[in-house]
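for the writeup, i need someone to sanity check this before i put it in the appendix. the sequnce is what the collaborator sent (i think, or maybe the updated version? ugh). structure was predicted straight from it, no edits. if anything looks off just tell me and ill rerun, i have time this weekend
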Amino acid sequence: MREVGIGRVLVASLHQGIADILPTRLGFYENWLNAEGLREGTIGLAPLYAVLSFLRREGDAYRIITTRAGEYAAEWTVQSMHSTHRAIIKAAPVWLRRWMLLRLASRLVRNSYKGSRAILHVRRGTASIDLRASVFCQVREPVPLPLCGFYAAAFTRLLGLFDIGARTDVVACRGTGEPKCVLKVALGNGQPVERAEAP
């Protein structure tokens, strides 16, 4: 039973990021991110916090792993969509496509952890995202660097997969002692993005 609402996409993408960047340490992390929990969607909040805490001690690997995990989460979210839904988004005018993708990004936040929310405000080509209850930012003591990289990478990749170039910056993070997490997404004009593959 999934009592705390940790989404499979979050756990699976984090597991894959660890496998890519720290393959020799994967066995250690699988003490908490085990195969049965991945399959059944039963990874709890405490094991996830343990994984994130240990990852933060891995130095720069934390940033690289969470960034890659965010990209995987975006890609897998798009792959799991019905092909008709992907086609509708792809065919939409740029202004509507941006709006649809920001809504999808908000849903990705909620699907990662049921307690999280993304409150969106868009103005003049920039989206401001107030990220509520990010599981990445629950720390006992403030840390020097923002911990919201998973979401920043996920938003940028998600928009890029539908030819909306974007740059997402973490403006404030609860993990660094700020009162809330805020991300700014500079939205592109709908021109194809080099790195993105067609959904």
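Helices lie at 8-21, 26-29, 35-40, 45-56, 61-79, 83-91, 94-112, 149-160. The longest strand covers residues 117-123.
thx in advance!!
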